[in-house]
Automatic annotation (TrEMBL):
<keyword id="KW-0067">ATP-binding</keyword>
<dbReference type="GO" id="GO:0005524">
    <property type="term" value="F:ATP binding"/>
</dbReference>
<keyword id="KW-0547">Nucleotide-binding</keyword>
<protein>
    <submittedName>
        <fullName>Nitrate/sulfonate/bicarbonate ABC transporter ATP-binding protein</fullName>
    </submittedName>
</protein>
Length: 28
């Protein structure tokens, strides 16, 4: 199974947004 660079980039952005969302959720 080969992951395309575009998909890995998308996955990283998705992970980043999820992390930020969880952090802001914990703050409030």
């Amino acid at each position: 199974f080969r992951v395309s660079p575009a998909f890995s980039l998308y996955a990283r952005q998705l992970q980043d947004s999820l992390l930020q969302a969880s952090q802001s959720g914990m703050e409030s």
